């Protein structure tokens, strides 16, 4: 159970650093309780969509008989992490968020923003992790951890809006931290599945 919680925290943390900047951008424009509730609901719906898609892909991946072959999915987060190291795009994403916001349908706007700005990264991280889960109970714990982290990040985003220095630090170092965690998750998945050992055996 502890491992499942730590997995959930690490996975959400890796995908959430960039997203918290997006949330802060949205919350800057919408500050009433009613508006922020709509932003929260959009956040939840967007995350549910991404998790559902990831689960479907991971179920297909589990049809692969050899565990070490499944571990090759760890290459995905490693590649995403490497890509992030060479592409710092926080400011561009925030500009896109501002353009997509619609006060008339705020929930839908935030849902779409969550899916479009986080989709590829989140799915790339979640699929390998979900595919490694051996028991439904472990999956439930990971999903519950995701929900707890979602709420924590939303509260932090509200607090950070009032502290400009936090936003500056996240913009400066957030991508680097995210990339390191992505690469770490990918390596962990490959090690856990004995993929690296198998590849070394093939080479030698």
Automatic annotation (TrEMBL):
Transmembrane regions listed in the UniProt entry: 6-27, 39-61, 67-86, 106-127, 139-161, 173-191
The entry's keywords: Membrane, Plasmid, Transmembrane, Transmembrane helix
Pfam families named in the record: Cad
Origin superkingdom: Bacteria
InterPro entries linked to this entry: Cd-R_transporter
Name of protein: Cadmium resistance transporter
Originating organism: Nicoliella spurrieriana
């Amino acid at each position: 159970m502890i491992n499942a919680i730590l997995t959930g925290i690490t996975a959400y943390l890796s995908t959430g650093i960039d997203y918290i900047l997006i949330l802060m951008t949205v919350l800057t424009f919408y500050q009433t309780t009613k508006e922020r509730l709509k932003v929260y609901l959009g956040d939840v719906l967007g995350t549910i969509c991404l998790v559902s898609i990831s689960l479907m892909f991971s179920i297909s991946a589990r049809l692969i008989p050899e565990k070490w072959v499944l571990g090759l999915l760890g290459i995905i987060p490693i590649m995403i992490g490497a890509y992030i190291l060479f592409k710092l795009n926080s400011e561009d994403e925030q500009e896109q968020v501002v353009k997509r916001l619609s006060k008339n349908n705020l929930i839908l706007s935030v849902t779409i923003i969550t899916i479009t700005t986080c989709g590829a990264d989140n799915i790339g991280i979640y699929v390998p992790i979900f595919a490694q889960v051996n028991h439904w109970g472990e999956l439930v714990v990971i999903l519950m951890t995701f929900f707890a982290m979602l709420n924590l990040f939303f509260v932090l985003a509200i607090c950070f809006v009032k502290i400009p220095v936090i936003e500056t630090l996240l913009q400066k170092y957030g991508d680097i931290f995210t990339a390191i965690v992505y690469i770490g998750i990918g390596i962990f998945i490959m090690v856990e599945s004995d993929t690296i050992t198998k590849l070394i055996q093939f080479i030698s």
